[in-house]
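Can't paste images in this forum, so I'm doing it all in text. The chain is below; anyone willing to post the predicted structure tokens underneath?
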Amino acid sequence: MARKRAAKSQMKKRAQARRAKTEKQHQISLCMIVKNEEGFLPGCLDSVKGVVDEIIIVDTGSTDRTVEIARQCGAKVYHYEWNDDFAAARNESLEHATCGWILVLDADERLDPAAGEALKAVARGSSPNAVYAARIINRSGSGNETEHYFPRFFPNNAGIRYEGLIHERPASQTVESFSASRLPHRLKGFTVVHHGYQQDVVQGRDKMRRNIALLERILEAQDNLYHRYKLGSMLLSAGRISEAVSQIERVLAALESMDEEARRQVSVGRVDVLLLLADAHERQGSRAHATQLVDRALEILPCSKEALHQKAVQLFRDGRLEEARDVFLAVASSHPLDRADTAGEQLVFDMSLDTWRPLTMAARCSIRLGDTSAAVEALAAAAGFAPRSDEYLETVREALDRTCHSGPGVCGEDSPELKRLRAVLDEEAARKVAEGDRLFAGGDIARALELYAGSARLSGAGSGVLLARIASNQLRLGKIEEAFATYLQALRSLPGDVGSLNLLIELTEAFKTLTVDGSARVGGSAEIDAIPVAD
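Text version of the structure:
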């Protein structure tokens, strides 16, 4: 009897184990490598709640609260000694994953809310057992976004491992550089938003120098078109233009030496390389050569938005404004391209070409041509695209100023387009103030001041209250002469404001502390904090 009970118990345990194993096969492990990501990590992990069943984090030497935050979020944390090899660190994270599917994210990325159900459906077996590419949106500033596609979701225990010291990719995707013949599968809704290339973050982490060194190491060991292309791109961004030209020309020569069918398959890649090389020659002052390269790109892909836009920019710089405007408007009116079919080429596309940028450039052409009504029309057509770039907002400000100064009764209060553009400036001015207040509360006075000043530019001279706030922050940063001048402007807007008069008295006293050579001697923080600020 005891033997029967024992056998029955064993069978039950084996059945439970099989069910658990089966269940694991339909679950998702998030695999990450991190270092000093206390600022980004909470947002990333929050974005995958309810989507992943396991969080694997490989830390490569954090000295901040990254590990503590990861553990608080329920992650399994493993330590790994960094050896300048991104693929090795990625593979270490895969070794610890126990679920049937693996999602790969970086700490400065967020999984789009719509992606969760799509990924879980794949894990449940509703879609093919394959590698899936995410649409990755790179946010680098107000209104400036690029996108590319890259493999980020794949089955575990399928022999998939990463390769490459940098720009590493799953080794099972043996796609030749710039070839779209074998691609990761598309998955509708699988979008990842990347925040890490904002300019201040890039500078703070010195990514450029590190990445250039790693790419040079890779190419010393083995030539690779994609890595050479990335090296050329990074050298160009770093201002090392002659070196960039040398690398990009080698990539182009290799692509052009392919047979006709192979060249046809890499058409998008060839155009991308030609435009990058044209940009490099433009920076060197070789405009004629740059024009030839863009024309070659258009011969390959006449409908390429990237090539058409670059051609229009060249026409704009050459003063051929009517021609440039026509091309910008053609880019704006053409249907946005579905670029998912270039996933294997790992190319980056400027999303603003589908939204605000060509309309803004068309408006700038119209302003120079004296056609402010056409400029207003183009800018109003782009008003719904967000986030709005500073380039767009400054063009709106200029168009409105020119419209209202072009003659009596021309300000067009009844024009729906003008009303819309004024509303845009009001909305963005208020947004900058709100963000400035948030930064100010967090102690980031310098960035708060930039936003307050940006709000004042959008709203014209700025209100007296806002100018008083700007002056107060200038004073806190020791910019006493600037603060004094700004507050005089504020007084003209708030001549009877008691707080304004009090601050003017304090500023006058502070102004007396200036040394003969104009440098400021500011008192202690308690003295500055005591200065009244107009609210």
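The chain has four domains: 21-197, 202-352, 355-460, 462-535. The longest strand covers residues 144-155.
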